[in-house]
């Protein structure tokens, strides 16, 4: 008998936590972009549909970057039309990553209404990922944000290397705040604070959030994106929840990494996050059994077991 059938996890709420958390599912984009094997377009589309069927309402579908840089997502034009009806029929948001105006053009041509940029808090990662300085990349984003806002398209920006950089080491909080504030002033609707190499700890998370608030960036506009390199992703998520954050990025089955930061391991697994949130009595709208089954299904297609501890526990057969 599985643990949910036994009534586990037992629900024991903790004080001063949000009643509901929006999970921003990144498995189909951030998760699959780092896979070595080519995942067929039809399998990706089925993955997105199964994720939606589990109750997830924000599912990042793909990326409109140049195929040369992320070949795993070269089929964006073919994939998006296969899943776009979810937005119309089920109210599922299907954000897509756009690196520049050309990417925005491609996304808008297919009817995307939620897009995301990919910024950096450090010069080294901006150079590796965008081939620009931080300020040059911000200048590149300005027309993208302006055009998205004019077209009433919701725009998020990821900020990578918010807590540590594999080339530069610790990243000063004020440096992260400067980039975040520039993106908010530009008109971004939402920011996702990325711990790209998984080195954050809870005190660091709360300090960054407090500094952002002091500089006028509201908690309501912030999401968090943790990698579990050192086993800190759930602890860091709880620290963010205690600060009032209600948007958490996660990847079904713990898929993903970063092709430009080799020390980055998988994202926080969505199932591990849901297990913790259920135990805290926090609503997510996600059916954990269905989500686990989806990750097992995808793991079979990738030819390896899911790294998610919750997936392993719930799919274990005696």
UniProtKB/TrEMBL annotation:
InterPro entries: Aldolase_TIM, HMGL, PYR_CT. GO terms for biological process: ketone body biosynthetic process; L-leucine catabolic process. Keywords: Lyase, Metal-binding. Signal peptide: none annotated. The keyword Secreted does not apply. SUPFAM superfamilies: Aldolase (SSF51569). PROSITE patterns: PYR_CT (PS50991). The keyword Metal-binding applies. Gene3D superfamilies: Aldolase class I. Residues 21-292 form the Pyruvate carboxyltransferase domain. GO terms for molecular function: hydroxymethylglutaryl-CoA lyase activity; metal ion binding. Belongs to the HMG-CoA lyase family. This is Hydroxymethylglutaryl-CoA lyase. It comes from Streptomyces mirabilis. The lineage of its organism: Bacteria, Bacillati, Actinomycetota, Actinomycetes, Kitasatosporales.
